[in-house]
Design goal:
Length: 161
Protein backbone atom coordinates (compact mmCIF):
# COMPACT_ATOMS: atom_id res chain seq x y z
CA UNK A 1 0.00 0.00 0.00
CA UNK A 2 2.88 2.34 0.73
CA UNK A 3 3.96 2.07 -2.90
CA UNK A 4 0.64 3.42 -4.22
CA UNK A 5 1.15 7.18 -4.79
CA UNK A 6 -2.54 8.02 -4.30
CA UNK A 7 -2.48 6.65 -0.75
CA UNK A 8 -0.83 8.15 2.30
CA UNK A 9 0.00 5.03 4.27
CA UNK A 10 1.11 5.05 7.90
CA UNK A 11 2.34 2.17 10.04
CA UNK A 12 2.02 2.61 13.78
CA UNK A 13 2.99 -0.13 16.22
CA UNK A 14 2.44 -0.10 19.95
CA UNK A 15 2.79 -1.78 23.28
CA UNK A 16 2.63 0.65 26.20
CA UNK A 17 4.41 3.13 23.93
CA UNK A 18 3.62 4.14 20.35
CA UNK A 19 6.14 3.98 17.50
CA UNK A 20 5.44 5.43 14.05
CA UNK A 21 7.34 3.33 11.50
CA UNK A 22 5.90 5.07 8.46
CA UNK A 23 9.29 6.27 7.24
CA UNK A 24 10.42 2.65 6.95
CA UNK A 25 7.63 1.42 4.68
CA UNK A 26 9.94 0.86 1.69
CA UNK A 27 10.48 -2.67 3.03
CA UNK A 28 7.34 -3.52 5.06
CA UNK A 29 8.21 -7.19 5.54
CA UNK A 30 11.55 -6.28 7.07
CA UNK A 31 9.84 -3.70 9.28
CA UNK A 32 7.12 -6.05 10.49
CA UNK A 33 9.48 -8.92 11.24
CA UNK A 34 12.21 -6.67 12.60
CA UNK A 35 10.20 -4.67 15.12
CA UNK A 36 10.24 -5.84 18.71
CA UNK A 37 8.54 -3.90 21.45
CA UNK A 38 8.59 -4.56 25.16
CA UNK A 39 5.12 -5.97 25.80
CA UNK A 40 1.96 -4.64 27.36
CA UNK A 41 -0.84 -3.07 25.39
CA UNK A 42 -2.17 0.48 25.37
CA UNK A 43 -4.52 0.46 22.41
CA UNK A 44 -6.10 3.73 23.50
CA UNK A 45 -2.75 5.53 23.41
CA UNK A 46 -2.04 4.16 19.92
CA UNK A 47 -5.48 5.20 18.68
CA UNK A 48 -4.93 8.64 20.22
CA UNK A 49 -1.76 9.01 18.19
CA UNK A 50 -3.52 7.80 15.03
CA UNK A 51 -6.32 10.28 15.69
CA UNK A 52 -3.77 13.13 15.44
CA UNK A 53 -2.83 11.90 11.95
CA UNK A 54 -6.37 12.09 10.57
CA UNK A 55 -6.76 15.08 8.25
CA UNK A 56 -9.69 13.91 6.12
CA UNK A 57 -11.86 11.54 8.16
CA UNK A 58 -14.10 10.58 5.25
CA UNK A 59 -11.03 9.48 3.26
CA UNK A 60 -9.33 7.67 6.16
CA UNK A 61 -9.18 3.90 6.66
CA UNK A 62 -7.83 2.72 10.00
CA UNK A 63 -6.93 -0.93 10.43
CA UNK A 64 -6.36 -2.00 14.02
CA UNK A 65 -4.66 -5.39 14.39
CA UNK A 66 -5.07 -6.46 18.00
CA UNK A 67 -6.45 -8.99 20.44
CA UNK A 68 -8.25 -6.01 22.07
CA UNK A 69 -6.82 -6.86 25.50
CA UNK A 70 -6.51 -3.22 26.57
CA UNK A 71 -3.87 -2.60 29.23
CA UNK A 72 -4.75 1.10 29.47
CA UNK A 73 -8.14 2.76 29.78
CA UNK A 74 -10.67 0.45 28.08
CA UNK A 75 -13.60 2.86 28.35
CA UNK A 76 -11.54 5.65 26.81
CA UNK A 77 -10.42 3.28 24.04
CA UNK A 78 -14.02 2.40 23.23
CA UNK A 79 -15.05 6.05 23.35
CA UNK A 80 -12.20 6.99 21.00
CA UNK A 81 -13.23 4.31 18.50
CA UNK A 82 -16.81 5.58 18.65
CA UNK A 83 -15.65 9.19 18.04
CA UNK A 84 -13.36 8.24 15.17
CA UNK A 85 -16.09 6.32 13.38
CA UNK A 86 -18.64 9.09 13.98
CA UNK A 87 -16.31 11.56 12.20
CA UNK A 88 -16.35 9.27 9.16
CA UNK A 89 -13.13 7.29 9.64
CA UNK A 90 -13.70 3.84 8.20
CA UNK A 91 -12.27 1.38 10.66
CA UNK A 92 -11.77 -2.38 10.70
CA UNK A 93 -10.42 -4.51 13.53
CA UNK A 94 -8.41 -7.56 12.61
CA UNK A 95 -8.17 -9.91 15.54
CA UNK A 96 -5.00 -11.68 16.60
CA UNK A 97 -4.79 -15.17 15.15
CA UNK A 98 -3.72 -18.20 17.14
CA UNK A 99 -1.32 -20.78 15.72
CA UNK A 100 -4.40 -22.70 14.56
CA UNK A 101 -5.58 -19.65 12.59
CA UNK A 102 -8.50 -18.97 14.92
CA UNK A 103 -9.02 -15.48 16.32
CA UNK A 104 -8.07 -14.80 19.92
CA UNK A 105 -9.56 -11.63 21.43
CA UNK A 106 -11.29 -9.86 24.31
CA UNK A 107 -14.89 -10.85 23.63
CA UNK A 108 -16.66 -7.90 25.28
CA UNK A 109 -14.42 -5.26 23.70
CA UNK A 110 -14.86 -6.86 20.27
CA UNK A 111 -18.64 -6.94 20.62
CA UNK A 112 -18.80 -3.33 21.83
CA UNK A 113 -16.64 -2.18 18.92
CA UNK A 114 -18.85 -4.13 16.49
CA UNK A 115 -21.81 -2.22 17.96
CA UNK A 116 -20.24 0.98 16.55
CA UNK A 117 -20.56 -0.54 13.08
CA UNK A 118 -16.89 -1.51 12.90
CA UNK A 119 -16.22 -4.88 11.22
CA UNK A 120 -14.33 -7.11 13.66
CA UNK A 121 -12.93 -10.45 12.51
CA UNK A 122 -9.79 -12.53 12.16
CA UNK A 123 -8.06 -12.34 8.78
CA UNK A 124 -5.05 -14.25 7.52
CA UNK A 125 -2.21 -12.32 5.87
CA UNK A 126 -2.97 -13.83 2.45
CA UNK A 127 -6.47 -12.26 2.49
CA UNK A 128 -5.24 -8.84 3.65
CA UNK A 129 -4.67 -7.33 0.16
CA UNK A 130 -8.20 -8.26 -0.92
CA UNK A 131 -9.57 -6.91 2.35
CA UNK A 132 -7.85 -3.58 1.73
CA UNK A 133 -9.06 -3.46 -1.88
CA UNK A 134 -12.61 -3.96 -0.61
CA UNK A 135 -12.19 -1.36 2.14
CA UNK A 136 -10.62 1.25 -0.16
CA UNK A 137 -13.39 0.65 -2.70
CA UNK A 138 -15.89 1.27 0.10
CA UNK A 139 -17.23 -2.25 -0.31
CA UNK A 140 -19.27 -4.11 2.26
CA UNK A 141 -16.66 -5.60 4.60
CA UNK A 142 -19.20 -7.76 6.43
CA UNK A 143 -20.24 -9.34 3.12
CA UNK A 144 -16.57 -9.70 2.13
CA UNK A 145 -15.80 -11.45 5.43
CA UNK A 146 -18.76 -13.80 5.00
CA UNK A 147 -17.77 -14.58 1.39
CA UNK A 148 -14.31 -15.51 2.65
CA UNK A 149 -15.78 -17.64 5.44
CA UNK A 150 -14.49 -15.32 8.15
CA UNK A 151 -16.73 -15.15 11.18
CA UNK A 152 -17.37 -11.55 12.15
CA UNK A 153 -17.94 -10.63 15.79
CA UNK A 154 -21.54 -9.69 16.48
CA UNK A 155 -22.47 -6.46 18.21
CA UNK A 156 -23.14 -6.63 21.93
CA UNK A 157 -26.87 -6.16 22.52
CA UNK A 158 -26.56 -5.34 26.20
CA UNK A 159 -23.50 -4.43 28.28
CA UNK A 160 -21.79 -7.28 30.11
CA UNK A 161 -21.90 -7.15 33.89
Amino acid sequence: MASIPALATRLVVFDTSVVDLSEHLADPVDVLFGVQLGGGTDINRALGYCETLVRRPLATHLVLISDLEEGGDAQEMLGRIDRLTRTGVRMVVLLALSDEGKPYYHVEHAARIAAFGVPVFGCSPDLFPDLMATALGRGDLAAWAAANELVAVRALATPCA
